[in-house]
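ok trying this again, last paste got cut off
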Amino acid sequence: MTTKKRFEAVLAWFEANAASAESELNFDSPFSLLVAVMLSAQCTDRRVNMVTPALMQAYPTPEQMAKASVEDIFGYIRSVSYPNAKAAHLLATAQRLTEVYGGQVPDNLEDLQTLPGVGRKTANVICAVQWGQATMAVDTHIFRVSERIGLTTHSKNPLQTERQLVKYIPAAIIPKAHHWLLLHGRYICQARKPHCEACGLKPYCRYFLMIND
């Protein structure tokens, strides 16, 4: 199967079976999405969703969070991974949003990546989820699943995976395709033991076809 045909088959299956896939993070504004995505690094969405309601009630805007201290923010997020670093990044990001961007979350990759603690993956998530842009965020799930299925080949890092994916995925569905691959990796194509018996992508999956050759 050619790479183009595999992409077409995989995307068609997802469209038919998971058309409504979306972020599992809870948010109600560009700022609360940014905060949630920053907190989600190496942490489960479930845990993030447990801490963000109280945090965002206390600091619903960048201007309000910018007046807090690292210790104040830490108190709300102590149960997430790396809370000290994340508290410092959240405060610095809130201050930069207030001072440079008028309290508004930027709508482009370049400006987003000037925010402390915001790398390319986080910026891609914000642009895709909040602004509907054709940006493909690659986390560990997407990196693994793409290579297993055969959407990517010999990808060595997230940027290579991103470039191979956007080459074949139509721009209009890239934001949705991000969630398709992420959730598939989270619940079906898991790292230690993929649940191939429950996977509808078996006819197109390079890994499954290889182990059953």
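PB: full thing came through this time. The chain has a mean pLDDT of 95.
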